[in-house]
Amino acid sequence: MSVVLSQSVFLAEQVRDHEGPAAKRSGITLYELMERAGLATYQQAISYFPKASTLVVLAGVGNNAGDGYVVARLAKQAGKQVTVIAAIPDKPLKGDALSAQQAWLDAGGEITADASAIERADIIIDGLLGTGIQSAVHEPFSQLIKVANESQVPIVAIDLPSGIHADTGVVQGVAIKAALTVTFVGIKQGLVTGQGRAHAGTLEFNDLGIEDAFLKLTSPTAELINYQTQPRLSDRDNNSHKTSHGKLLCIGGNSGTAGAIRLTAEAALRTGAGMVKVYTHSSSILPVSIGRPELMVTDTNLISALEWATCVAIGPGLGQDTWSETTFEAVMQYCFTNNKPLVIDADALNLMAQHASSFPLANTVITPHPGEAARLLNCRANDIEENRFHAVKQLARSYTTTCVLKGAGSLIADNNQTWVCTDGNPALAVGGSGDVLTGIIAALIAQGLTPQQAACLGVTLHAKAGDIAAEREGERGMLPSDLFAVVRKLIKELASSADLSR
Predict the structure, then answer these.
(1) 268 near 250, Cβ under 8 Å?
(2) CA-CA distance, 218 to 147, in Å (whole number)?
(3) How far apart are CA 484 and CA 489, in angstroms?
(4) Please, what are the domains in the chain?
(5) How much is the pTM?
(6) Which among 176, 277, 342, 412 is placed 20 to 30 Å from 30, CA to CA?
């Protein structure tokens, strides 16, 4: 499969080490690369904010500042009112950044340390800090970042928001909250997940004309995916029947938590599973089945249900009492012995974490949020969020599984590759949303997709449905069940003649 630069992410070190040689191979000087970066930023800024006539450029002391000086010069030449605020005005710049600064001064520009112009700006250009920051932001940079954020003026970040760790997306004490980030050469992986995604705003990418040369020198760490990039679903035969489309067993719903497994089961139906059976606590039979007669619900004959199923989903509302543990152990033992496809979520993950040894889950998808991931790796949730890419890869390796690490910019990893979902919004951060995702992924596996295919498609399908629902009714107050009708529509759109492995 060919690599597409705009759909790939890289470590900052990869970009720093290879952009120079790639530029040289392309017959471009590093200063020309800086000029192109500044031009790309200016063009995107004016495209997103066409009425902006007053710009403030925040300049640091490195190449990020050099890009900012190019933006300032171009804006001034276009008739804009431009103020350049230098974080450390008396510190001399070096190399190409110095050349860009001098070009700004030669064009009649000035440099000030007075931050008062920020409040009068239409947009702010963030050229304070680049990709090299590894520790907490210090003064005077931290103060300028705070003033810019508090001003409520839209901020356009050059390459990445100042204060964001380029590889992890973690805020280094304080960070620019950008409305728009224009990144270059290779998309830094910290921009697409966790805090980095939240601080980047809208992300635009420009390869600066060196894509071919750059890709010959290095390989991406992960692939960006969304609903539009996913393979289409194959058409169903006219003579197919309900068992042709998968038999899914959903297990969970302890006393008082029937709603969780009901969400999972109904999501599976809406995703196209032919038959869905729920094994649940005896007290949950009525709450699960009422109003949804299409679900088969039982509290007996677990092994028979497992034998019947094409795929199993376990965890939503399962709990961690004696009934939960007995059910969990029976399911795990059966699925391992018979290599039955399995999706593990919620309390089933917590029960997994209580076992001393890792399970070999080769035909399995696990879907932890950061707290569950921390329990599986015996660390803190903060440790997960501090390096989400490392965590998802570690989970995939430790448990020999396909792992979905949920959150802003959900990550999917198996033993070979990592993917990042670019769809989704904060409306999905609500109780029950993960239960729906589990049902979607399990239904796709039941219909014949591999765990990796189902994880990637399921995550993007769920996220896109959330985007559509939020656009219609707003992010606040959205229920996980609001996604059902949208998921069904998206599934219809995915149906085509494309052939997925079955």
Answers:
(1) yes
(2) 38
(3) 9
(4) 5-220 (3.40.50.10260), 244-495 (3.40.1190.20)
(5) 0.94
(6) 176
